[in-house]
Amino acid sequence: MAVLGLDHVQIAIPQGGEDRARAFYGEGLGMTEVPKPPNLSPTGCWFESAAVNLHVGIDPDFTPARKAHPALLVDDFAALRERLESAGYATRDDKPIEGYARFFAEDPFGNQIELMQRL
Questions:
Q1: Positions of the chain with pLDDT lower than 50, given as ranges
Q2: Which CATH number is 40's domain given?
Q3: Which domain covers residue 51, as residue numbers?
Q4: What pTM was estimated for this model as a whole?
Q5: Is residue 2 part of a domain?
Q6: Measuring CA to CA, how many Å separate 23 from each of 11, 17, 30, 67, 104?
Q7: What distances in angstroms separate CA 50 from CA 31, 53, 57, 73, one per listed residue?
Q8: Which 8-state DSSP code applies to residue 35?
Q9: SS (H, E, C) 47-116
């Protein structure tokens, strides 16, 4: 018996934040919104890109995740960073990790997101 992989990551956002989530995860990161199963809550939204599934869910007691975060692999580090910064999202560098270019961004709710490209 073994863990085989990661199905999805869920990010919490406050009530009513779906449009801002769509702007960041859809337009900013270039992920595609996909329909949620009809038997689940109609709030929140789901995104995918390649083999990555990201679920954005409403938390009535929302607090931003400033330490715990997804680290998303990207194929054009510089272009993505430019697109996010041009859209008004702050980015920041962190300590280097061998074999990667990387930076952090915050979604519109203060959740930390790491963006990485293998070198």
A1: none
A2: 3.10.180.10
A3: 9-118
A4: 0.94
A5: no
A6: 15, 10, 9, 22, 17
A7: 9, 8, 21, 10
A8: P
A9: EEECCEEEEEEECCCCCCCCCCCCEEECCCHHHHHHHHHHCCCCEECCCCCCCEEEEEEECCCCCEEEEE
